[in-house]
Amino acid sequence: MNSDMDICKPLDLQKDGQNMMNSENIEKVRCLIIGSGPAGYTAAIYASRANLRPVLYTGLETGGQLTTTTDVDNYPGYPEGVTGPQMMEDFKKQAERFGADIRFGIATSVDFSGKIHKVTFDDMKIIEADAVIIATGATAKYLGLESETRYAGMGVSACATCDGFFYRGKDVAVVGGGDTAAEEAIYLSGLCRKVYLIVRRHELRASKVMQDKVFKSGNIEILWEHQAINLFGENGVEGATLVKKKGTADEETVTIKIDGFFLAIGHTPNSVVFKQYLETDQVGYIKTIPGTSKTNVEGVFAAGDVQDPNYRQAVTAAGSGCMAAIDAEHYLSELK
Ligand SMILES: Cc1cc2nc3c(=O)[nH]c(=O)nc-3n(C[C@H](O)[C@H](O)[C@H](O)COP(=O)(O)OP(=O)(O)OC[C@H]3O[C@@H](n4cnc5c(N)ncnc54)[C@H](O)[C@@H]3O)c2cc1C
Known about the structure:
The protein is an alpha/beta fold. It is about 25% helix and about 25% strand. The protein is built from eight helices and 19 strands. It has helices spanning about 5, 40-50, 85-95, 145-150, 160-165, 180-190, 210-215, 315-335; strands at about 25-35, 55, 70, 80-85, 100-105, 105-110, 115-120, 125-135, 140, 155, 170-175, 195-200, 220-225, 225-230, 240-245, 250-255, 260-265, 265-270, 300. Strands 1, 2, 5, 6, 7, 8 and 19 form a seven-stranded mixed beta sheet that branches. Strand 6 (about 105-110) and strand 7 (about 115-120) form a beta hairpin. Helix 2 (about 40-50) runs parallel beside helix 3.
């Protein structure tokens, strides 16, 4: 594997022998799609129906984030709901039906310096593309507790909009002190009986407006200077163990009874590999020209969570995948 530094280097600057390509490892395509979540597959459906003969690389997580969840109840067209893996299998089949070429591989370096965009997969194969659609998603941050993994999909969630509905009338906790945490707590307070907001510091980082909303809500209790250290329960989350004022003389252990544990400590957009060429915001979300999927590099488009700090839903990701394919089609038709 390349070092992190190498990953960001233009290909012609990579001196490492393993990256010296022969022509068999180079393939030319019109439209390359990177990522196999709702954004990538939707882009593939539209691009293949527009006869762009797209090649899509899935990345490590074939099907994207939704393959890590059970019930998806809010995607239109599934009146009875659907499991995340099944939904993504349906997306894939639909893209394949129109001829999308779907392959396994991870983009490890890019060269967007010329008119032909070069993307290397698995440090081995170079795809030269006229248009590239980046749909690599964003990864939610977790605290790193072993019990978070154990209860994944059984009471632990990083998305209140996605999973809050399953906790109507129940008690839940939200971890975080920024705007996202305040927003998630306020959203859940409209559905749940009680919301604990677990805040590591003695103040919120959230904006004044969001703080006021939290303080005014009748059923959000802020647990200042608390840190979650464990989750417990028989067949799902039934409670959390917290440490109050950790590392001080007043340190104490507290337990709360909850049915749901929501992380709201941020996301990491999967954009590192493109950062040398593409403008991002401070967090790493790829910047697009408002109302389009166009990035600062002509012929490179971004769709889904990797360019969306606000909504991060399957339906918005799919919608922006459609936009990216249409933008790519317009771009390619003008290239001719
Ligand atoms: C547990 C959970 C439950 C959720 N539930 C819901 C829900 O009920 N309803 C809802 O609307 N939303 C839900 N979401 C949010 C939803 O999953 C995301 O908004 C959506 O998947 C974003 O789609 P995307 O296509 O942008 O990216 P993702 O789904 O994140 O897919 C990104 C893709 O990019 C690939 N990739 C990443 N890096 C590379 C690389 N270097 N090279 C090649 N490929 C790469 C990955 O392998 C993956 O295939 C949930 C999220 C989680 C985590």
